[in-house]
Amino acid sequence: xxxxxxxxxxxxxxxxxxxxxxxxxxxxxxxxxxxxxxxxxxxxxxxxxxxxxxxxxxxxxxxxxxxxxxxxxxxxxxxxxxxxxxxxxxxxxxxxxxxxxxxxxxxxxxxxxxxxxxxx
Length: 120
Fold this sequence. Notes:
By secondary structure, this protein is an alpha+beta fold. Helices cover 22% and strands 35% of the residues. A 5-stranded mixed beta sheet has the order 3-1-2-4-5.
């Protein structure tokens, strides 16, 4: 079974490794949107995989570290590409949630990426 939750956050970034002439090398921001999917077994007694409030609390706890921040200043985000951000979110959510965690984020309505962590 999968439970999912959509989220969004706003952040500033620059990509230092793309070359000075690339538009993403300059300071800019995005309103990122995303989805976390948690897969696992449904608890027979509770009747759900996870309490939706607990999933939201885990996501909100991770987003608190990046929402309305300059991403380049954060640990492990020196080059905050969408792929880097996606892995960052995946790793932190996987540490908080039991089950297989998949994260999708979009930097605009047509461009994004997805990654998943193995089930624990």
